[in-house]
Amino acid sequence: MGGLPRGLNGYERFFLGGDPPRLIEVEGWRKSDKVLLIAFTKYLERDEVSSLTGETLYVPRADLPPLRSGEYYYSDLEGCAVVDSTSGEELGVVRDVKNWGDYDMLFILSGAKEWLLPVTGEFVDEVDIENERVTVRVPEGLGP
Q1: 106: burial class by Cβ within 10 Å (0-12, 13-18, 19+)?
Q2: Coil, helix or strand for 100?
Q3: Parallel, antiparallel, or unpaired for β 113-119 and 124-128?
Q4: Residue 25 and residue 7: Cα distance in Å, rounded?
Q5: Residue 119 contacts by C-beta under 8 Å, 6 or more apart in sequence?
Q6: pTM score, two decimals?
Q7: Pseudo-torsion of CA 99, 80, 7, 21, nearest 10°?
């Protein structure tokens, strides 16, 4: 399956969002111009597949590559407490993490307010997945 877009190569199954999530298996892959066409074993006809348009595909955690020491997945950060490295004060909770071009961005929920903080050495001192804690330095005017 060489030549597939980065991040999809080698996966043979996905979950579709929903409640409950549905497991779907990959029958095959094909690149067409600038898009990737995926055939799923239970959705082989064009009108069956059209029902999946706009769905988000999730990779089962068991299928993700193993992590090296100090690495984590975005999903591991969701729900972690965000703590100020100077005062020890809890500033909020990580709601999401997204790639923002040159760096990743934490979406932090503090009460009803959401604010953003770049995941760089300048702002993030420590990520402690085991204790569900992200220790940060927040510049004036950027925090909650």
Answers
A1: buried
A2: coil
A3: unpaired
A4: 16
A5: 97, 103, 104, 105, 106
A6: 0.70
A7: -120
Residue 16 tokens, joined = 């579709």
In sequence order, what are the residues at sequence separation of 6 or more whose Cβ sits closer than 8 angstroms to the Cβ of residue 80?
A: 93, 94, 127, 129, 132, 133, 134
Other beta carbons within 10 angstroms of residue 83's beta carbon come to 19
* DSSP annotation of 77: H
- State the CATH number of the domain containing residue 123: 2.30.30.240
pLDDT digits (tens, 9 = 90+) for 5-41: 556 667 888 888 777 888 888 888 877 777 777 788 8
Per-residue pLDDT band at 124 (split at 50, 70, 90): very high
Phi/psi of residue 46, each to 5°?
A: -55, -45
Asked, for residue 141, whether it belongs to a domain, the answer is no
92 and 47 share one domain: no
Rg (CA), the chain: 19
Find the mean pLDDT for residues 60-64: 84
